[in-house]
Amino acid sequence: MYAQLVKSEGTSREEMSPEEIAFQERIDRNEKIEPKEWMPEGYRKTLIRQIGQHAHSEIVGQLPEGNWITRAPTLERKQILLAKVQDEAGHGLYLYCAAETLGVSRDELLERLHSGDMKYSSIFNYPTLTWADMGAVGWLVDGAAIMNQVPLQRTSYGPYSRAMIRICKEESFHQRQGYAIMMKMANGTPAQKKMAQDALNRLWYPSLMMFGPSDKDSVHSAQSMAWKIKMNTNDELRQKFVDQTVPQAEYLGLTVPDPDLKWNEEKGGYDFTEPDWDEFYQVLKGNGPCNKERLGARVKAWEDGAWYREAMTAHAKKKAARRSAVAAE
Length: 329
Ligand code: BYC
What we know:
Strand order of the largest sheet: 1-2
Pfam family, one: PaaA_PaaC
Low-confidence stretches: 1-10
Number of strands: 2
Strand content: under 5%
CATH architecture of the largest domain: Up-down Bundle
Number of helices: 13
Protein name: Ring-1,2-phenylacetyl-CoA epoxidase subunit PaaA
InterPro entries: Aromatic_CoA_ox/epox (IPR052703), Ferritin-like (IPR012347), Ferritin-like_SF (IPR009078), PaaA (IPR011881), PaaA_PaaC (IPR007814)
Shape: globular
Bound molecules: benzoyl coenzyme A
Structural class: mainly alpha
Organism: Paracoccus isoporae
Number of domains: 2
GO molecular function: phenylacetyl-CoA 1,2-epoxidase activity
CATH superfamily of the largest domain: Ferritin, core subunit, four-helix bundle
Distance between the termini: 62 Å
Radius of gyration: 22 Å
Oligomer: single chain
């Protein structure tokens, strides 16, 4: 058990305060940590970073799909896509609320997103060029999100874990709607099948990048796993995702764009080519195909909404003043 008490910076158990040791023992017993309880500052900060980044991803993640609402091929598809994009807004809200319980305001989180100080998932810096991308996003991007989020339902911080339970229920619907689009396209005309294959070709490696850098380059994994903020390493989840997704691609009659993909009997999983990590770090630095467009759209939405936030605040103040006037009568 105490093997887990080693911090990623290299601090050993001997260097921990009695409070830190007691805290770690609660984590090891799988107790949930609740907002007002004592927690190490690093635990609080790591949670704000991860939950905040996750919330931002949900909100920015609306943009590539929102782009296709007006161009959905049927009314039914339009309704489904609208509902999905609306769900992402809800997920963002649950997560911002969970982050707020750690003593950070939503305005501050958004300010840090807009200034480029906080990240959102790299995947949303890639464009969605055709309707088949709506299928591939649901199938691969939501599929990767679920793979990462199902274990997070058991994460040690109570509000985060409870938000995850609700989010995962909706994500599985999202993944299935994406796969349903892929089925239609892959079994459609040769041109539709080609679009489906092209979407898979473009989104495969960016989806693998969603799990983060390989374990040897992951900065936060060791400490986050000791604190059960993360339940698996990045590579473990990436492997599970590949193993789950390859048979789904085969069922669609599509080819995963990796000539070296091969079942490895010994490890009971596929050997596969790693994403281009230089590209990943370039996207993180703001140099991906859509970084400027995505952040620009968020900042514009925030600025355009200023009058609405002011009106709501003024309305809330008036209501509160009226209530206290009535109470004073
Ligand atoms: N994109 O030490 P590491 C969704 C950063 S799905 C951007 O391994 P960690 C949705 C990382 O922040 C997506 N940045 O980090 C789906 C760190 O930089 P900082 C959201 C990334 O945190 C469909 C550095 O690289 N899901 O929302 O231990 C529709 C070193 O990495 C990425 C979540 O956020 C990336 N892909 O592990 C709509 C799940 N990967 O912060 C919406 C919760 C790494 O030190 N998050 N970085 O500057 C996690 O599980 C973990 O934060 C990660 C990264 C596995 C993503």
